[in-house]
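RETRY 2/3 - previous attempt timed out on the joint model. Re-submitting the same 256-residue input unchanged.
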Amino acid sequence: MTDQAYTTSTFDTVAKIISETCDIPLDKINPESHAINDLGIDSLDFLDIAFAIDKAFGIKMPLEQWTQDVNDGKATTEQYFQLNNLCTRIDELVAAKGA
Amino acid sequence: MRLEYFQLIDRIVELKLADQTIRTEAQVPAASTIFEGHFPGFPLMPGVLLIEAMAQTSGWLLIAVTKFTRMPFFVSVKEAKLRTFVTPGQRLALSAKLLHEGSGFAVTKADIRCDDKTVCAAEIIFRLMQFPSPEFRANMEKMAAILEFPIGALADA
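RETRY 2/3 succeeded.
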């Protein structure tokens, strides 16, 4: 069993947002799902998801920086858009906000 | 409005950066070939153009909020409601408020009022991108001057 880096409530919130925004059944969304490759979320739908996540957590996900990192080869899309990693980053942003 | 140039607003009336709001105004032309088709004998301002007018109003707010460093491109409209007919010659009061500035995108809520009644409203999403070229930005600056964009307000913010 691996350590879980994200909080379960964060994943539940993100999964609910994705399910409602993209009409994907909740049971098809799991922590290992890749938002783009597995769930087929396109960039326009991801804007709706980003808006809902930013609102729900009171954060501003640095999507431009993440995209730049991927384009520059400094990161893989899995690091940002696989849901367990996305939720970990959301928790980090929430923690940074409260620091 | 200069419908043939897709200019849907005439003037920026008020920009409040602290409140992240903007107000603009527009006069629907008394005559246009658009009204010959929409509809013959019953001219109405097309709803899609009212939505575009709200998008242009929102767009100038976003240009102001980002201090002319980003160009907003209209990508999505939600909850659009067209409540009543708009006819040639009517004067419109438009307003928009920034709901959220995300990373590379922004969301606004906009509406249009006519004779003190809400004509339409919508939530609009934009991508915020670099200006495609210096010429593009220069053209937007020219349009800003035509619309009386209060450029001084950016320096004070």
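The beta strands of chain B are 11-16, 21-27, 71-82, 91-101, 105-114, 117-129. Closing ticket.
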